Amino acid sequence: MQKKLTLRLENKLIESEIAPVTKSLIGIIKSNQVDESDYKKHLEEKYL
User: Fold this and answer.
1) What ranges make up the beta strands (E) of 1-48?
2) Rounded to the nearest 10 degrees, how much is the dihedral formed by the CA atoms of 40, 46, 47, 48?
3) For residue 7, what are the domain limits?
């Protein structure tokens, strides 16, 4: 027997603000062109 689950969110949760950390990350991503090579360089500098 299959049952369907329905997810219901309160309107205040849907309309809530984005967390400050998330906002800053979105801002960083929008303002910079970061590609895979930049990420690999970051990892090398951090761990090697």
Assistant:
1) none
2) 90
3) 1-47
List the Cα angle 38/43/45 in 5-degree steps.
95
Q: What is the pLDDT along the chain (48 residues), one digit of tens a residue?
A: 788 888 887 877 777 788 888 888 887 777 778 788 988 999 999 999
Total domains, the chain: 1
Distance (Å, whole) CA 4 – CA 45: 49
- State the Cα torsion 15-16-22-28 to the nearest 10°: 50
According to the model, what pLDDT value does residue 45 have?
96
Round to whole Å and give the CA distance between 28 and 47.
22
